[in-house]
Amino acid sequence: MRFLEEVVVDEFLPTYRSLLAAALRERGLTQQAVADLLGVSQSAVSKYAKGEVGTRAEIETDERVTAHVAEVADGLADGTLSRVGALAEAEALVRDLEAPGDVLADIHTEQMPELAGVDVDFRGTGEGALREREHVLADLRRGVKLLERTSGFATLIPAVGSNLVECLPDAETPEDVAGVPGRIFDVMGRTTVPADPEFGVSAHVATVLLAARDAGSDARAAINVAYSADLIDALADAGYEPVEFPAESESADVRTVVRDALVDAPEARALYQTGGYGVEPIVYVLGDDAPSVAAAVRAFC
Hints:
Cro/C1-type_HTH; two-stranded antiparallel ribbon; transferase; 12 helices; seven-stranded mixed β-sheet; L-fuculose-1-phosphate Aldolase
């Protein structure tokens, strides 16, 4: 019997730490500084550098892993990412790689052939409150980076700005929802993100997401983009089942208005209002997490 967690410890961690140690050294950190960040001994870092630690090629060459290592190394090196944040980023990556049919699941099956053809997801679900919050922030950072790299996304940013948000599983108020402080803006055709994601910084988009959840939606993330009839048609064709709500009531009680609009269609993943006096028309796209919402919007750029 071999547990998936053993695959993570024996196969993923040595490869991941080796890659991250090398990336941090490339950014000018000393071996001791790298050891302190990774929580290992200096001699272990030396072994990573000398190639004395066995690694798995399929993990080492996975594009998601290499991109993730570069981003985490940048954040740790310049101090914009804490060790807890880095841990959350790594755990989010592991969750992805553990999915059935993905690289860690395949290694698990390789080492325990009886799993071949068995449709079971062995990923754990236990989370502490701190880690859950860090996972949400990690998701948002990934989603925001995807938007920044998406050519054409700036054209979807409304005059009031966009915000990408994700909530905790038991979210009740905007304080339980993380977003981008100051919103995301189009600055001369470039998607501009003013600050790293935080909890409690989005009022409007967070409230729309919470209203959708009040109506029975299982969405954990949302983004607002500029309205167009063509976008609504494209969303409908893609299966998002757009639902309209009245703009004239937005400023009064958006949570009630959105909840009422969705009460008969909680599975809808798109909401919109076509504007009114002093109110810009807006589309809200909902999804399971911030990266999937960003990827969905990217498809319409």
